[in-house]
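hey
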């Protein structure tokens, strides 16, 4: 069989918060296992992702915190990218939807389907805040869910019952920024003719017999209820501007531009080669997504692609059910959540990957429990897989001086374990290929268990038998290759301990069925692969990180910002008013060696111009410039909060402008 060409994408994580364990097993770790497997198979596979950085959640967070939306996205992009790298999710490219290339792509996409007649303009009524003097799209409105009665829900989706909402549906609605009740006001928006694609979608989805039943039936059900045209623009500043005249203040809806991000990220990865994946009917495009994203990837996104006409439609959709935490539904707003970076701070990534894959919520919701995490890791990962590998390597080290012995003769048990080796890549690979990640992991563990049983029966500590150790060394090599998709960090270590050439990720999957380690081979230095999780450690971890509401997303954002801050002493040279802004000053600040900077600061309520000129202050000097009221602001003042008013933090004695604060 020839090489397959596969494009794997994972749902673009939204840059308005860190990743939690549910995200990790929802769309990322399974996709990583799948991609790593196909790389070892020698297939032409690429793995594409990036952060989704538009939309009202980021805009609202930014407004509530008084910082530009780009800065919210910058921080979370950085944190999310690092977390993925820490847990070993091996994207070929991880982009962002705020890159210029993506703006261009999204606008071109919009114009193309507009020209083809699949987009039209319509006047509609939308909530408008009379106090903020602007429209209130999506999360700018809050109110009571009309379906379940939950209060303080957001305008796009009810967190309690999960229903997708339109802002005008909310009862007792109010503006998320100022609390006023909105009016209905007329505005123009562009709509995508989704209704025109009902028949084509129905036909296409019916043909996708290889899709999981839930995704297929769910999507067909959606279509049979009747598809409605969808507004693909919003009245707001943050987003990709609608590329038309008379469209000021309008941006593309985040759900429209985000999936185009898959294409943009692929282009960023390879400016020429991207077409081989997106415009090639032989390429299999696989979208790994969370359950709530199914209709967007089986209906709306394919309809967009059909409307455009140049792109290949998705080949497969892999989605998971939900992961609960200690028996309760996770909720970021209520603080009942386990952040991925917290657990990775205490436990090595393969332990986390192992446990998450072992409870992979493929067909039904599953539960993450710290005690179960400890138990599964200790008894299965360490007790079975780690145990076999350690036993074999330590035995060869201690009793054979680190040299793999020559095989002597093969009895029935030996022949059987040789069969185990030969069949293992097929047994594990079949499951991964079919997106059955938990059974695949079980097949890997079963192979190690057979090794343990064999070692136990042969009792090499009683009888010196070269064949047993020779076969066990080769089975260890088999395991190292088969471990790579699931446990990439420990697979690499096993490969090194075996003293083999090259790297495990360069091996061919089928070669895991061979026994190329010969008698006389010298293994490398040996140390335990894993460390058992002790009661004390798991209890302390639970106490620290499983407390509802203990650490809000904003605290994490601020901490992330603070870690990388360059704080400098500056002297205010000039203070000016900004027309129409009651609370803002435009400052000119001397930062010594860094030169002069212009800053916009909301301190007019508290300080008079006279008080400020010549004053020494502390400035955060390494922030990306923000545009506030049309003025560039190249930094931020540091101030303490005194009854809601800012009070400057200043050096106790005069220091030179530009002095670094540590
Ligand atoms: Zn509800
Ligand atoms: Zn308002």
């Amino acid at each position: 069989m020839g090489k397959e060409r596969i494009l794997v994408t994972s749902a673009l994580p939204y840059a308005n918060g860190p990743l939690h364990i549910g995200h990790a097993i929802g769309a990322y770790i399974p996709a990583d296992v799948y991609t790593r497997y196909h790389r070892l198979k020698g297939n032409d596979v690429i793995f594409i992702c990036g952060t989704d950085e538009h939309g009202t959640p980021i805009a609202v967070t930014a407004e509530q915190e008084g910082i530009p939306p780009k800065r919210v996205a910058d921080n979370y992009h950085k944190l999310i990218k690092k977390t993925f790298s820490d847990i070993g999710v091996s994207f070929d490219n991880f982009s962002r939807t705020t890159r210029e290339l993506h703006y261009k792509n999204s606008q071109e996409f919009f114009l193309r389907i507009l020209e083809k007649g699949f987009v039209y303009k319509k006047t509609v009524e939308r909530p408008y805040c009379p106090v903020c003097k602007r429209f209130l799209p999506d999360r700018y409105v809050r109110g009571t869910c009309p379906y379940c009665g939950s209060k303080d829900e957001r305008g796009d989706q009810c967190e309690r019952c999960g229903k997708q909402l339109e802002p005008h549906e909310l009862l007792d609605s109010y503006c998320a920024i100022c609390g006023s009740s909105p009016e209905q006001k007329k505005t123009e928006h562009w709509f995508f003719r989704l209704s025109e694609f009902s028949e084509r979608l129905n036909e296409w989805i019916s043909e996708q017999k290889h899709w999981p039943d839930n995704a297929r039936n769910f999507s067909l059900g959606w279509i049979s209820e009747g598809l409605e045209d969808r507004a693909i623009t919003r009245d707001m500043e943050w987003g990709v501007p609608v590329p038309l005249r008379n469209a000021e203040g309008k941006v593309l809806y985040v759900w429209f531009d985000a999936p185009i991000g898959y294409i943009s990220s692929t282009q960023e990865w390879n400016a020429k080669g991207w077409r081989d994946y997106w415009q090639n009917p032989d390429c299999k495009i696989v979208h790994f997504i969370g359950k709530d994203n199914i209709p967007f990837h089986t209906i709306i996104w394919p309809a967009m692609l059909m409307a455009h006409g140049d792109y290949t439609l998705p080949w497969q959709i892999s989605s998971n059910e939900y992961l609960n935490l200690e028996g309760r539904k996770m909720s970021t707003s209520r603080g009942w959540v386990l952040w991925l970076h917290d657990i990775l701070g205490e436990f090595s990534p393969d332990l986390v990957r192992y446990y998450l894959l072992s409870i992979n919520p493929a067909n039904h919701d599953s539960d993450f429990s710290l005690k179960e995490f400890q138990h599964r890791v200790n008894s299965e990962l360490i007790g079975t897989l780690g145990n076999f590998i350690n036993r074999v390597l330590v035995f060869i080290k201690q009793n054979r001086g680190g040299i793999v012995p020559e095989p002597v003769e093969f009895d029935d048990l030996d022949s059987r374990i040789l069969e185990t080796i030969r069949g293992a890549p097929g047994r594990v690979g079949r499951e991964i290929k079919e997106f059955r990640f938990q059974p695949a992991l079980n097949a890997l563990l079963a192979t190690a268990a057979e090794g343990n049983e064999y070692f136990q029966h042969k009792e090499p500590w009683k009888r010196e038998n070269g064949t047993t150790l020779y076969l066990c060394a080769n089975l260890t090599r088999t395991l190292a290759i088969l471990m790579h998709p699931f446990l990439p960090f420990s697979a690499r270590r096993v490969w090194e301990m075996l003293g083999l050439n090259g790297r495990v990720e360069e091996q061919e999957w089928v070669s895991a069925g061979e026994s190329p380690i010969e008698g006389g081979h010298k293994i490398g230095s040996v140390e335990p692969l894993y460390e058992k999780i002790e009661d004390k450690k798991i209890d302390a971890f639970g106490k620290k990180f499983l407390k509802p509401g203990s650490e809000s997303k904003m605290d994490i954002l601020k901490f992330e910002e603070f870690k990388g801050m360059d704080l400098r002493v500056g002297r205010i040279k000039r203070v000016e008013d900004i027309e129409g802004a009651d609370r803002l000053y435009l400052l000119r600040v001397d930062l010594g060696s860094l030169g002069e900077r212009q800053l916009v600061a909301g301190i007019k309520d508290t300080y008079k111009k006279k008080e400020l000129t010549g004053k020494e202050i502390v400035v955060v000097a390494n922030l990306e410039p923000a545009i506030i009221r049309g003025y560039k602001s190249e930094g931020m003042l540091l101030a303490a909060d005194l009854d809601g008013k800012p009070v400057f933090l200043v050096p106790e004695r005069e220091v030179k402008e530009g002095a670094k604060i540590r």
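The first helix runs from residue 21 to 40. Residues 129, 131-132, 175, 177-178, 180 surround zinc ion (ligand 2) (CB under 6 Å).
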